[in-house]
Specification:
The complex is a heterodimer of chains A (263) and B (442).
Chain A lengths: L9 H6 L6 E4 L1 H6 L1 H17 L3 E2 L10 H6 L2 H17 L4 E4 L2 H10 L8 E4 H10 L14 E4 L13 H9 L3 E3 L29 H11 L4 E4 L2 H13 L7 E4 H8 L3
Parallel strand pairs in A: 1-2, 1-3, 3-4, 5-6, 5-7, 7-8
Chain B lengths: L3 H28 L11 H13 L8 H30 L10 H29 L14 H33 L17 H4 L4 H25 L7 H10 L13 H11 L31 H9 L5 H5 L1 H4 L6 H21 L11 H4 L3 H5 L6 H5 L6 H15 L5 H13 L17
């Protein structure tokens, strides 16, 4: 992959007296998790290619507080929220895009009451609008004719009713979109939500990600597409558990688009 | 002496309604033990939501077989209630088929009641088979042992018996009409009960009158008993589904409420001008500081308690729950049943202590719902989406997690690690915030 990506920070922009069209909220997974960092880069490459005027907070970004809130620590959540809102408001941010449905949900739904009101979109929504505006073209490329199943992230789908944006993008790849038996409103969780990502699961007879991976495998996909770094991790682990990592890729929708174009 | 049955009828009707009213008032009182919550915004949207979900049964048909059967029983019961109106008027005034002068309209009404009654019998039989012969897994979870299982079956028996009585009453009436018996006006169409004729073959007019009257009395008394049974049963949903959907959460499912009591303290902590040693402003003194989260039913809000009474234990939530599907202890249905059972226990405590709750050393957390159940939740909202009457088990789980974490510091150790990472380096993992942009150069 070419390494010529341009990632301006808000601080740099502000120093030049500029303000970007949209702030890219990278999120903790997108910043630190080795797998998720690839998603971040893929998305940035698309933004660069489409000439989107964006910036990131960089070291001024901090956890939205989502995992703390879902774990029950409302104090920590609000401390994080209020701190982040101060930064965002200081830069007079109007529009935010993020590739993490947890950040998306939290900033979109839980920040306004605490003084942080922004237009918040998921990266798949931004990409579809770039398509509609003609700023981005997608061609099938290497995914043409491939079977791709999309795993609905709970915090994007049920939580916020975004089901179609990621699917539209997959269809644009000339791929065959195949649905799992539980999809859209009835989508089965990957097992990571509600702070489960950070703890061992409670005793049971199966891991949730294995169950979900089995549903995905039933569709005999070439690719399992995800729209959330945590779902991505869970599904990747599930595919490894089933020893299918040689045959099936787990990729974020942004990676599908970037890879199709060999960005 | 001809007015004696009318008096008996009036007394039974009065007692039936009075006892029911008394129990409904108890439910209202118990719900009011919860915290106030404003769910009166956007009334237009609320009426629409109620019409779609409760009246229109929109979410029932997500599962087509159960949904269709349920609509039959639901429509059957609503429409057959027009007949109950006639029965009540007849009972009070000693008339017989008072609506008969409606003529062909009356024929149409009675005819449709009969067809619906037959359909209800079919649907109720299918329901019984699903529970007891097919043994659909969601009806056999641990929380369904004992009373909940019996309750579900009793409701089906009740409905079956009421419909059979209704058709028997009509069948005997039809025979009497054909005999030209006194008092039995020629009215109504009997597309179903006319086929009961062989059963009445050779019976005298007197015997038929006894059958007709017995079925008539048992039917109306049965309805009053059923009405009063509601309070003791999951069947309360036939009434509470309406307010419950009206007061439903209309915001995006992913939006969890921000605790205002916390906001106040956080704002104070973040305010550089705040004097941490200032004496508390007496005007702002609100007595005991508010408890964070919920450990008992009184800590929940009134809509959550209404949710608990509305739950009809169908188990669609638990069926869709990823934790439950993978053998974890969590069952969202059990969360609702436990909340209701504890609330009933608290209500009974108040009843037997002259209107005052006397601590019983028990609470919802621990005695009913265990921490293990609460920590198994992925907050995925599948249960909320699945509920056909807009119940939200997730909000109760979250409130109880809040209590565990903020009042008891009882989070699992790994979550404590995650939270201290968030607190210290602004990420759930131990990475330095200053390295947040390093991905750019990887």
């Amino acid at each position: 992959m070419s390494e010529t990506i341009t990632v301006p920070t808000m601080a740099e922009m502000a120093a030049q007296g500029k303000s970007p069209e949209v702030l890219f909220w990278v999120g903790c997974a997108g910043s630190f998790d080795d797998r998720a960092k690839k998603i971040t880069k893929a998305f940035v490459k698309i933004l660069n290619k489409a000439g989107v005027d964006f910036a990131v907070l960089g070291t001024e970004e901090s956890c939205t507080g989502d995992p703390a809130k879902r774990a029950g620590n409302e104090f920590l959540f609000q401390m994080q929220a209020v701190t982040n809102i101060e930064v965002l408001n200081a830069y007079e941010i109007k529009k935010i895009v993020t590739a993490c449905p947890h950040c998306f949900n939290t900033i979109k739904n839980e920040y306004p009451q605490l003084g942080g009101e922004y237009e918040v979109v998921h990266h798949t929504q931004l990409l579809t609008s770039l398509l509609e505006e003609g700023r981005l073209q997608i061609e099938g490329g290497k995914f043409k004719g491939k079977r791709i199943t999309f795993h609905d992230p709970c915090y994007l789908g049920r939580a916020n009713n975004v089901y179609e944006a990621p699917r539209e993008l997959i269809r644009k790849l000339d791929a065959e979109l195949v649905e799992m038996k539980n999809c859209r409103k009835k989508g089965l969780c990957c097992g990571a939500g509600g702070a489960q990502m950070f703890k061992e699961s409670e005793p049971g007879n199966q891991e949730v990600n294995i169950k979900r991976t089995e549903q995905a495998l039933e569709t005999q996909p070439d690719v399992i597409a995800a729209g959330c770094p945590f779902c991505n991790t869970m599904m990747t682990d599930g595919v490894k558990n089933k020893e299918k990592e040689g045959a099936i890729e787990v990729l974020d929708v942004a990676e599908l688009i970037a890879n199709a174009e060999d960005l | 002496m001809s007015w004696i049955p009318q008096i008996i009828f009036a007394v039974i009707l009065f007692l039936g309604i009075a006892y029911f009213t008394r129990n409904i008032r108890k439910i209202v009182r118990n719900i009011k033990l919860g915290k106030k919550i404003d769910r009166t915004d956007n009334p237009g949207e609320r009426w629409k939501h109620m019409t779609r979900i409760a009246l229109g049964q929109q979410k029932m048909v997500v599962r087509p077989v159960a949904g269709l059967m349920h609509i039959i029983v639901y429509v059957g019961f609503i429409i057959i209630n027009i007949e109950v109106l006639e029965i009540i008027i007849d009972g009070l005034f000693g008339t017989h088929r008072i609506f008969a002068p409606l003529g062909s309209v009356y024929d149409f009404l009675i005819g449709s009641f009969e067809i619906l009654a037959l359909l209800v019998i079919v649907a109720v039989t299918v329901f019984w088979l699903r529970r007891n012969t097919l043994k659909l897994s969601r009806f056999w979870y641990p929380e369904m042992k004992g009373w909940p299982k019996k309750d579900a079956d009793y409701i089906l028996y009740f409905e079956l018996v009421l419909m059979v009585l209704f058709l028997t009453m009509n069948g005997a009436d039809y025979q009497l009409q054909q005999m030209g018996a006194d008092h039995y006006v020629q009215a109504g169409a009997f597309p179903v009960s006319q086929f009961l004729a062989p059963l009445f073959d050779g019976l005298t007019e007197g015997a038929l009158v006894i059958i007709e009257r017995t079925a008539w009395w048992l039917h109306i008394v049965g309805i009053l008993i059923f009405l009063n049974y509601l309070y003791y049963s999951k069947h309360l949903h036939i009434l509470l589904a309406f307010p419950n959907t009206w007061f439903a959460n209309l915001k995006p499912m992913g939006q969890f409420n921000n605790l205002e009591s916390v906001t106040k303290e956080v704002k104070l902590m973040m305010d550089p001008d705040a004097d941490p040693f200032a004496a508390p402003d007496p005007a702002e003194d609100e007595g005991e500081p508010e408890k964070f989260g919920a450990s008992d039913v009184m800590d929940l809000n009134q809509v959550q308690l209404l949710n608990a009474y509305t739950c009809t234990e169908c188990g669609r939530c638990t069926n869709e729950c990823p934790a439950s599907q993978t053998g974890k202890k969590l069952s969202p249905r059990k969360i609702m049943m436990d909340t209701r059972d504890r609330l009933e226990e608290v209500g009974k405590n108040i009843d037997s202590n002259n209107g005052e709750f006397v601590g019983d050393g028990k609470q919802l957390l621990g005695d009913y719902i265990t921490a293990e159940e609460l920590w198994a939740c992925t907050s995925c909202n599948a249960c909320v989406q699945a509920c056909p009457v807009s119940i939200n088990p997730l909000s109760i789980i979250m409130d109880m997690r809040r209590y565990l974490v903020m009042e008891q510091s009882a989070a699992p150790a790994e979550l404590n690690n995650m939270m201290s990472n968030v607190e210290n380096n602004g990420a759930p993992w131990p990475f330095n915030q200053m390295d947040r942009l390093n991905w750019k150069n990887d």
